[in-house]
Design goal:
Blueprint (H helix, E strand, L loop, with lengths): L6 H13 L11 H8 L3 H8 L7 H11 L3 H5 L10
Helix pairs in contact: 2-3, 2-4
């Protein structure tokens, strides 16, 4: 069930996805860059990645879209959680 994916797990997956991508100049993508792109500051992005706050579903989708990955790719092995929904 979806409950198997807790905030810490989701945060870790978000952070790993961000850290695996580089901008067009080869630099790490910052939390601030993602925040600006999806309409929040870098602080909520930090809180999501640390598992301290739950991002809205649309923000997760925007986060993935900004990184150029699908939600399924970001979730990796956790994607089987959604197959029971």
């Amino acid at each position: 069930m979806i409950d198997d994916l807790n905030l810490k797990d989701l945060g870790s997956l978000l952070q790993k996805a961000r850290e695996s991508k580089k901008d067009d100049k080869g630099r790490k993508i910052s939390r601030e860059s993602i925040g600006n792109a999806i309409g929040v500051s870098g602080q909520p992005v930090y809180e999501w990645e640390k598992g301290n706050q739950q991002p809205g579903f649309l923000n997760v989708i925007k986060y993935c879209k900004f990184l150029g990955i699908s939600l399924e790719d970001m979730l990796g092995e956790k994607k089987t959680v959604f197959s029971t929904c």
